[in-house]
Amino acid sequence: MRPRKTLLSYLILFACTLVIISCSGTTNSTPIVFVGSTPGDKLIKSQLTIPSDKEVDFIRWNLILSETTSNQNTFSLKIAFGVSQPNTLGFKMEEKLAFNGTYTIAPSKNKILDGVIYHLKSNSLPSEIMMVKLNENILHLLTPQHGLMIGNGGWSYTLNRKELIMDNAAVAPALTSASTLLSDTTRQVIYDGRTPCQDYATEHQLKVTSSCFKLKWRLILNRNPITHEPTTYTIRKVVDNVPRDVSGNWAIIKGIDENPDVIIYQLDPEYPENSICFLAGDENVLFFLDKNFRLHAGNGDFSYTLNKRP
What we know:
Elements: H1 2-22, E1 32-39, H2 42-47, E2 58-66, E3 74-82, E4 95-107, E5 116-121, E6 129-135, E7 138-141, E8 158-161, H3 178-182, E9 188-196, H4 198-203, E10 214-223, E11 230-239, E12 242-256, E13 259-267, E14 276-280, E15 285-289, E16 305-308
Antiparallel strand pairs: 1-2, 1-8, 2-3, 3-4, 4-5, 5-6, 6-7, 7-8, 9-10, 9-16, 10-11, 11-12, 12-13, 13-14, 14-15, 15-16
């Protein structure tokens, strides 16, 4: 009887251990890492405690999001910033800061923006940092008024998942009311940005050198001055330091099968096999879409985002 009793004691001890572990509040999922490089303008410097008089061209982000069984979501944010070193992806002199805190995820309650919002809070930050989720691979930083932050020709306010979910089938989201975008009467608008090179070149059969790591873009959209309907466009992409201009017609697509509210700008709609499509996040920010209307995800250096020029 003694061996049987000993075995029973071990089984009881093992079961109790499992209960303790399950209730201990330890991490129950692999942390998710988002990376990206954003501008270093006045607003983002104030949010990240960077002195306003500090000269900053861009900020490199490494954001780690962790979930626990105790419903306490935590984050760790490390940033590097400084003046860009010409012809490189680095800085002349790099400075660093680190922040830790908690975050919550909730649907937007603001009329300006629709979507799921990440709220990051830390005792080391003067205010919360907000980001809207475009899909599992992409987050975009928001202003305190819940607008999409507008980048520049060098960097965007988009963060990309470091380890991409390659089979992500999430459809393009409708972040802004369709009526706002469809009622735009601006006769001409210009967008700038830089994106990764190799993945885009592969999808669009673009000939590039093996050393190509970025594409520079300028998109000009024109509208009829009377009807305000889309008319012509010109897009310039600089590939391996060689500018290539293409012109044609563009159109606005209101809704797709998966999302009837989404607004898409399509270049050369009469040639769908060669057209380029963008998700209109709002009137200021465009996101590149693939041929299946899925968002392109970038990397730690560049995002697939274009920003309206002032």
